[in-house]
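W.,

You were right to be curious about this one. When I first looked at the sequence I had no strong expectations either way, so I just let the prediction run and decided to look at it fresh. Below is the sequence, 59 residues in total, followed by the output.
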Amino acid sequence: MNEFYELAKLFDVVVIFCFFLGIGMYGLISTVTDLIFLIHKTFRKHRIARRAKKNNLDN
């Protein structure tokens, strides 16, 4: 019975570790993708504004 208890305790520790590892990886990946989307959106707005300014100067 003691071996089953030790196995269950080890399994419980591994499951909790994987759970927290998954949460940490999700947080890191989510932060990186949000940063990439923010940079992309900023450059796109800058490019549109630059083209509009160029078109206004040409007219």
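Here's what jumped out at me. The two ends are 86 Å apart (CA to CA). And, maybe more interesting for your project: The helical segments are 2-58.

Coffee later to discuss?

I.
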